[in-house]
Amino acid sequence: MKFTNKDALLFDLDGTLIDSVPDLALSINQMLNALDMKPYPTDIIRSWVGNGAEVLTKRALSGSIEISPDLNTAYVEKALSIFLTYYEQNVCVETTLYPNVKSTLETLHRSGYRLVIVTNKPEQFVRPILKHLGLNDLFEMVVGGDSLPKRKPDPMQLTYVCETLGVAPSNCLMIGDSKNDIFAATAAQMQSVGLTYGYNHGEDINSHGASLILDNFADIIDALVPATELVD
Fold this sequence. Notes:
Layout: E1 3-4, E2 8-11, E3 18-19, H1 21-34, H2 42-46, H3 53-62, H4 73-89, E4 96-97, H5 101-110, E5 114-118, H6 123-132, E6 141-143, H7 156-165, E7 172-176, H8 179-187, E8 191-195, E9 212-214, H9 219-223, E10 224-225, H10 227-231
Parallel strand pairs: 1-10, 2-5, 2-7, 5-6, 7-8, 8-9
Antiparallel strand pairs: 3-4
């Protein structure tokens, strides 16, 4: 499949551009230690990532991807505050880019596409990560999980980007690794790309209705038809 007439490319962050699990796991386990709770292996915490900091905290407190209905609200708020404090200290210690991400983004930026981050990660952490990894100047806009009242899979973030940039949803493409990205795009009437290598809680990304599924981030370039080619 080839995408035509795309002006803006919206990218999820964790599991799409970066593997942040090592730093998230470190910070979650530091939080659990501070609360006198047992830590968990990184691979377990990896399966909990993808729905924002509060959900990750609740899963850690529950010891499961299924959040316990018995969690005390005040206790969750305390734990979340502890986690965010530790994560701020560890935000880009072992976080790495996935293969071909930087070169592909640079190519897309040079080609004139408007690049945007749409993530469920709290906004305060996004720019420091982008800066540390040398990506900050490539993105025109960042929308975090706490930037608006609702976040993916709700379409609010995507709709906000369209309105702010003055671009129709049909001229945008959402690129992510989880069903939250795909569902948000569908609800915003936007086409989407699902990447197979990220965080999708063990579910097959093929099953969520993405317009295109890719294994390699670099293949996004070949999936886009530049406006110059359409004219030719």
